Amino acid sequence: MPEAPTQSSSVVALRRTAHVHPARNPGVPFDLAWLDGLRVNQSAVERRTATLGTRRTVKKDAQAAWLLKAVTCIDLTTLNGDDTEGRVRRLCAKARQPVRADILAALGVPPHTITTGAVCVYHRYVAAAVDALAGSGIPVAAVSTGFPAGLIPHPLKLKEIEASVADGAQEIDIVVTREYVLTGNWQALYDEVRDFRAACGEAHLKAILATGDIQTLSNVARASMICMMAGADFIKTSTGKEGVNATLDVSLVMARMIREYHARTGILIGFKPAGGVSNAKTALLYQILMKEELGRAWLEPELFRFGASSLLADIERQLEHYATGRYSAFNRHPVA
Q: What catalytic activity does the UniProt entry give for this protein (predicted)?
């Protein structure tokens, strides 16, 4: 764990001027041998994740710094049926200044030095979000490929990706066909994600596994590896619409697949837990998991994101408590 930083050193570490992605993942040729031996001991995974909150603690100055860092790793998201352009533009304004200026001032953090990692919306609102975020360096992520079920025809999935990229999306969050995972059709999964990768062009590809739907941790491990082999730049737990979304258990398995892929290829792959990460305490557990399993680089938005909407409000509330010693009502910290 990093040492508790002073406020001044925290500010230096947190200051960002633009979002810079690491090198793209070119993928590797399909090879089923990479799945040999990929079986997960669920009991061992549960024992490991159960210790995350007990072996390490982050308090006081260090906790405030880690929570500010967590803000920079949020894909601030609205994926509701009643979304409007006005709501999306308000969300983008919050992404530009996610923490109230008075709280930042109390923490000794200059204004306009903290932004979220991205804004994530449906394709319909990509152009509006790009316009609202112009000049901020904050990328727009679009959910595509028939999100959340991914059951539209494959050519339409590719068209949706291409349309989002044309409207200015720099990141594309795709959903895989769960049937390919559940039936072990790994060639079909590889080919599907490979096509998505090609349709993205220069935009980064984030592959959503829908871990709550694919049933076993061994399936999570195999699907993670196949998506990375096919060229995914990030692997993501969930759409947020499944019955079970991000958990520490599936995140540990996915992190270790990222580590294995890096060992084989030298390529850094990002990770995004999404759905169910709604409070600061849980966010810290995910940050500890990233630090311990993958290293310091995975505490930065280039390699780590939270897919979240309500998380930001709770982090802002915790930061206000740290600055003032008082808890405020949750409704004083609206997301947008």
A: 2-deoxy-D-ribose 5-phosphate = D-glyceraldehyde 3-phosphate + acetaldehyde
